[in-house]
Amino acid sequence: MTTARDLWLLVARVSVGVMFFISGWGKAANPDKFASDFAGWGIPEPGPASTATAWAELILGALLVLGLLARVAAAGLAVTMLGAIFYSVWPAAMSAATTPTGFLSTFFYSSEWLLLLVLLALAGAGPGRFALDEPLGIEARFQRR
Predict the structure, then answer these.
(1) What is residue 24's three-state secondary structure?
(2) At what angle do helices 111-125 and 70-84 cross, to 10 degrees?
(3) Mind giving me the DSSP string for 57-126?
(4) Which burial class, exposed, middle or buried, applies to 51 when counting CB atoms under 10 A from its CB (0-12, 13-18, 19+)?
(5) Helix crossing, 111-125 with 4-29: angle to 10°?
(6) Global pTM?
(7) How far apart are CA 30 and CA 12, in angstroms?
(8) Sign of the torsion formed by the C-alpha atoms of 93, 97, 103 and 108
(9) What is residue 143's predicted lDDT score, i.e. its pLDDT?
(10) CA distance 4 to 1
(11) Residues of the chain whose pLDDT is less than 50?
(12) pLDDT, tens digit (0-9, with 9 covering 90-100), for 67-102
């Protein structure tokens, strides 16, 4: 029997996964621009870091869409969002905001913050029944622990 929870997890997982897959594809296809962005944000070793991030978004996004190792994929993408928040969103919010309310508004309206929340929810809740983890028994292993 299908539940609303499984349908919600499917929609959330596929939506976020496709977004990261497309983003990673674009970054992997134009590595010099992405490395330049990383350098501008002050990220150490911008070349290797941007390459790793691009491929992580591409591969983990695809895994999330498929629901294969979905909790691991969501957690890995959450780490990329933490990096984006630390190096890009937080400094931009700090420099743009003239009041505490302005900072909070800028920060909490960022897509990186919202994606982090969705990814953490997916990592915690799992992929639902409409995922490759289910027939392969991967999700059952997480639930037994």
Answers:
(1) helix
(2) 160
(3) HHHHHHHHHHTSSHHHHHHHHHHHHHHHIIIIIHHHHHHH-SSHHHHHHHHHT-HHHHHHHHHHHHHHH-
(4) middle
(5) 130
(6) 0.89
(7) 27
(8) negative
(9) 65
(10) 10
(11) none
(12) 999 999 999 999 999 999 999 888 888 887 777 787
Lookup: tokens for 14: 């596929």
Residue the block writes with tokens 């290797």? 48
pLDDT for residue 144:
57
Matching residue, tokens 């743009």: 96
- The tokens for 143 are 């639930």
Which residue type does 132 have? L
The amino acid sitting at 48 is P
Q: Residue 100: what residue type?
A: P
Q: Which two tokens stand for residue 84?
A: 């984006």
Radius of gyration of the chain (CA): 17
